[in-house]
UniProtKB/TrEMBL annotation:
Pfam families: Cpn60_TCP1 (PF00118). Residues 1-20 are annotated as: Disordered. GO terms for molecular function: ATP binding; ATP hydrolysis activity; ATP-dependent protein folding chaperone; unfolded protein binding. Belongs to the TCP-1 chaperonin family. It comes from Natronococcus pandeyae. This is Thermosome subunit.
Length: 514
């Protein structure tokens, strides 16, 4: 009996499992070489020829246009990792891929999928305990935060800038938005502008938006600004211009022109008298009004984007006003300074200081589009990890040390687990080894030798990672070399990788509509 349409495709049992597992593994494999400080970059070219060069796991997977449904689940692992903690996307994808690879071997040995799933979940619990044991003892101070930022950026294309100086900027930015309630990460923006060396990257105490003054004669800088944010068209309303005048004498024509002139003049004067010296509006501004306000020393921006308007409102404390008659002084926002600056084809407005300085912008410069784009991703990750580390106050050693510790603890615990589940728990530990093994491989070392040395060092010293410094690779305590990751990044990687791998393993029937 056929219950499905003839066009639908169905794969069942082992076939379904192995096809899904293969797809998941392939995804993990595709990002493996980018892991760590010596990871390589990928160049992705889309169908329209647009090029992205990146080292960022989530970016690669999203640009790859992956279709296989099981492979898509690994992309989701990277996405949720990015969303929750902002870093560790490659790690999570690579762990998930290896959990799948280990599961495949177990299935070959006739271990049932349910047993694998149970074993993996149990192992993940033990892994979280192992992470807790690796957490730093002291306080997470600026020094450690800088290390967290730097560890997340090493290996990324940071142009001519050292990860060290960028790390300092990142920590300063996050400290700037720290309040009693916690870190207001959303108050840190990153704005990129091509055209200078990346050394010109700086921290702006306020916001930067892509807007240009409505008139050339307007001041390029206003100090102590009272800022009005309007959703008002400043001019003769479009409807009235289109209306037909039944004009049959020169007098009537002159009258109509006069009426229009005085309406325009009225708007201009109302605004000038309101006391606002910087005006942002989401609508048009008549040239005559711009010109008049320029004469009054008012800086006006017209047709600004809705999201820019929201940013200005939130940074300066202004209230958006929908009708000119409603504009009152209490609606004004404030900033120490509003200035405009031209960068070749682009004009930018800076709203800085005073109330506006509750927000802060990392103003990223770089020679080419590719450099600033990758710099923006690296800084974005660094901002995320620093705020994650600051929020929880917990960091763990990087460079594979935490993964080795997890694998060790899980492997020991496996001995006490009965039945075939023990095999699954051991397999989980083996899958975790992939991180140090990959770090070693990406630095040109023999992965097996490195793993053996690392395990031995972990046995005797307790904390041991594979630290890369330029061309040198040392096995030692990563804390002493400033290679640290937020504990939450590792937790999230374990949880999301386990979840995706177990979900894929459990599927034994794929029914695809045409
Ligand atoms: P992910 O997308 O998972 O964050 P990365 O390419 O950023 O991938 O690599 C992160 C890994 O690199 C982490 O395990 C981190 O501890 C490690 N790492 C960072 N700096 C160093 C270093 N100097 N030596 C060795 N490992 C490092
Ligand atoms: Mg990273």
């Amino acid at each position: 009996m056929f219950i499905l349409s003839e066009d639908s495709q169905r794969t069942q049992g082992r076939d379904a499992q192995s096809s899904n597992i293969m797809a998941g593994k392939a995804v993990a494999e595709s990002v493996r070489t980018t892991l760590g400080p010596r990871g390589m970059d990928k160049m992705l070219v889309d169908s329209s020829g647009e090029v992205v060069i990146t080292n960022d796991g989530a970016t690669i997977l999203n640009e790859m246009d992956i279709e296989h449904p099981a492979a898509q689940m690994l992309v989701e692992v990277a996405d949720s990792q990015e969303e929750e903690v902002g870093d560790g996307t490659t790690t999570a994808a690579v762990i998930a891929g290896n959990l799948l690879g280990e599961a495949e071997d177990l299935i070959e040995q006739d271990v049932h999928a349910t047993t694998i799933v149970e074993g993996y979940h149990e192992a993940a619990e033990i892994a979280l305990e192992a992470i807790a044991e690796q957490v730093n003892e002291g306080e997470v101070d600026d020094e450690i935060l800088k290390q967290v930022a730097e560890s997340s950026m090493t290996g990324k294309g940071t142009g001519g800038l050292t990860a060290e100086s960028l790390a300092e900027t990142v920590v300063e930015a996050i400290r700037h938005v720290e309040t009693d309630e916690g870190v207001e990460r959303e108050n840190v923006a990153v704005h990129t502008q091509v055209g200078a060396s990346s050394n010109a990257t700086e921290l702006v105490p306020g916001i930067v938006i892509d807007e240009e003054a409505a008139h050339d004669a307007m001041p390029s800088e206003v100090e102590d600004a009272s800022i009005a944010v309007l959703d008002v068209e400043l001019g003769v309303r479009t409807g009235e211009i289109d209306a037909e005048y039944a004009i049959d004498s020169i007098d009537q024509l002159n009258q109509a022109i006069d009426a229009e002139e005085s309406e325009v003049q009225g708007y201009a004067e109302t605004l000038a008298e309101s006391g606002a010296d910087v005006v942002f509006t989401t609508d048009d501004v008549d040239d005559r009004i711009s010109s008049f306000l320029a004469g009054e020393g008012v800086l006006v921006f017209d047709n600004i984007g809705n999201s820019d308007a929201r940013q200005i409102v939130s940074a300066t404390g202004a209230s958006r006003v929908g009708a000119l008659d409603d504009l009152e002084e209490s609606d004004f926002g404030a900033a120490d300074r509003v200035r405009t600056k031209n960068y070749g084809d682009d004009d930018l407005a800076f709203v800085e200081g005073g109330a506006a300085a509750e927000a802060v912008t990392v103003f990223v410069r770089g020679g080419t589009e590719h450099v600033v784009d990758e710099l923006e991703r690296a800084i974005g990750d660094a901002l995320d990890v620093v705020s994650t580390a600051l929020a929880s106050g917990e960091v763990v050693p990087g460079a594979g040390a935490t993964e080795i510790a997890i694998a060790d603890k899980v492997r020991s615990a496996a001995a006490g687990i009965e039945g075939r589940k023990q095999l699954a728990v051991t397999a989980f530990a083996d899958a975790l080894d992939v991180v140090p093994r990959t770090l070693a491989g990406n630095t040109g070392q023999d992965p097996i030798d490195a793993l053996v040395d690392l395990r031995a060092a972990h046995e005797s010293e307790g904390r041991a990672g594979l630290i890369t410094d330029g061309e040198d690779v040392t096995i030692d305590d990563p804390f002493e070399y400033g290679v640290v990751d937020p504990a939450d990044v590792k937790r999230e990687a374990i949880e999301s990788a386990t979840e995706a791998a177990t979900m894929i393993v459990r599927i034994d029937d794929v029914i695809a509509a045409e």
